[in-house]
Amino acid sequence: MGIIITIFLNFYWHFSAILRPFHLSLQSLQAKQQNLMQQLDSLDQECEQLKSTVAEEEDDNQMMRERLKEIQEEKWEMQGRLEAQKKLTEKLRQEKQTLEQSASELQRTISELGELIHEMKEKEKLLVFFPDLHIPVETRFEISGNVMEDMGKQLQANNIRISILEEENARLRNAIAKIKEPAQQETQKFVLPTQLWIRSAEKPGLQDSAMPPPVGYPGASGVQGQISRPPTNSGPTASASRHRPPNPTVSYTPAPQWSSSSQLLKAPLGPAPFNLFYKETVSSPYAQAKGKGRQPPPGHCTRNHQK
């Protein structure tokens, strides 16, 4: 029994000596395992963090893909709009060229029509002023055999003549009005003074030889008017009459005023033709008379057709 125990102890000691390095290695392995477990835990944490980061990155990537898709769609839409705008611009440019050509053609047509209108007006004037001499061939009406039609054409021609003559009359009225203006201004400037007293009769010599008042003066004698003065007698009655105040009552007839150049122009011209030099022939005698300090005589007329 003791031998068995001894053998067992020896075997234990030998086995423990053999197992001791294994135990040490087992401890070291356990320590390494713990370190590895710690590293594994840290790696697991890092993996979880990386997974969350990857998930976030994937979400961002998905959002970027969607945004890129939207941008591409907008790009395609903008390209389509750009193409449509290019086509519209080209179309508008062609329309602009067409309109410019049409405008140039219309301007040319308008100028041609204006020249034609001017020529037709000249022909109408010739037709009115010289109906028997300068009638163009194309304006002569051929007898169609229908009296009503021929009368209608003649009526149309007469209406044209009347309209042109009315235009000519309007121009003549304007010219006459322009000619009247300076003459009226001259007559307004020349205003005669009004007599405010009666000449004394003390000097009979001066009374008899006194100059008559100018034409148009209220105290003019003869056709211009007469002023009643007290008679002058010799003797005592004459001396008494000298000391008496003159008779204040003055009776005169209105003198016929000399018609100025503006009133001459109011007379009808009659059948005489209109002349552009008529203004000079009317105003020249009056101007000469005004320069000499007198008015033209009543019996003188400056109109050529009344001489």
UniProtKB/TrEMBL annotation:
Protein name: Coiled-coil domain-containing protein 157-like
Coiled-coil intervals: 26-126
Composition bias, Polar residues: 223-240, 249-264
Residues annotated as signal peptide: 1-17
Top-level division of the source organism's lineage: Eukaryota
Region (Disordered): 205-266, 286-307
Keyword Secreted belongs to the record: no
Entry-linked InterPro entries: CCDC157
Keyword vocabulary terms for this entry: Coiled coil, Signal
